[in-house]
Amino acid sequence: MTNSHHLETIQSSSLKLANSHYENFPVASVFLPQHLRTPIALIYSFARQADDFADEGELTVDRRLELLNDFRDELDLLHAYIKPQTAFFNTLGDMIKANKLPYEPFYDLLNAFSQDVTKTRYANYDEVLDYCSRSANPIGRLLLHLYGQSNTSNTQLSDNICSALQIINFLQDIAIDFKKNDGKQRIYLCQDEMAAFGITESQIQEFVDEKQTTDDNWQQFMLFNLRRVSALLYAGKPLGRILTGRIGFEMRMIIAGGERIISKMSKVNGDIFRFRPTLNHWDWLVIFVKALMKV
């Protein structure tokens, strides 16, 4: 296979991988300028592959960390201007150089996913935000660099949006995360807040197993979390108007998607065990109109 065929295969598979994993938020979508779709897909493919090392399948902890370290080694080679070992990193490295992207966000993502393998509890909101600063915010920062819109103000707005989207995913995937990590249930909910609302891990197990339906404590706890993440997403919302053209439209679509998921979780009082929210065709129409009208 020629180098050009290798490149086309990696690019097409990256686009497919990026879009197949993000059911509720557009990734490298048709609304973006054509020249940005492949770079964005490569970034998401890097993140998705690394995240899958941490999460998917029946791998041991050691094997998960080994695979993540392999990615880190490849990044080290790129950073040192040495040819990497794999075709994917060759393609990724060319894209990074062509767009003058920083390497730090890629390392931050790997650090976050490595943490996922070994850390299953979060004591408080500061710990959750610290995780988000490495698991989600780097994506937004890389996109701003691609857009040529990276500055202090835009970066803060982007961080707010990305952290909010990450926390929204945590909330909608409580049951899914609870089953991960080799039987040591992963909980991204703040331990101090669970205690304050009288939520126990055994209760969550009962909800997951459908042996018990959610009670008032759980509803109040989730509505508290939903109000907070809604405020965080709102704090980043101006970025959708600051970014112009199709890039701004894409950003407004992403924000509106987050708002829609929050609304769906609120309507079921946070019972994501029986009513995990996903976006349907009607939701996407609403999101499209909101993005178009800049509301």
Question: How many DSSP H or I helices?
Answer: 15
Largest sheet composition: none
Task: Please tell me the overall pLDDT.
Answer: 89
Question: Rg, please?
Answer: 19 Å
What's the SSE pattern? HHHHHHHHHHHHHHH
The helix fraction, in percent, is over 70%
Query: Which term fits the overall shape?
Result: globular
Strand content: under 5%
Structural class by secondary-structure content: mainly alpha
User: Which stretches are poorly predicted, pLDDT < 50 over at least 5 residues?
Assistant: 22-26
- Count the beta strands: 0
Question: Could you tell me how far the N terminus lies from the C terminus, measured between alpha carbons in angstroms?
Answer: 48 Å
Spell out the key features of this protein.
295 residues; mainly alpha; 15 helices; 71% helix
Structure description:
By secondary structure, the chain is mainly α. Helix 2 (34-55) packs antiparallel against helix 3 (61-79), helix 2 (34-55) packs antiparallel against helix 7 and helix 12 runs antiparallel to helix 14. It is globular, with a radius of gyration of 19 Å. The protein has helices at residues 3-20, 34-55, 61-79, 87-98, 104-118, 125-135, 137-147, 152-172, 174-178, 191-196, 201-208, 216-236, 239-242, 245-267, 281-293. The protein starts with a helix and ends with a helix.
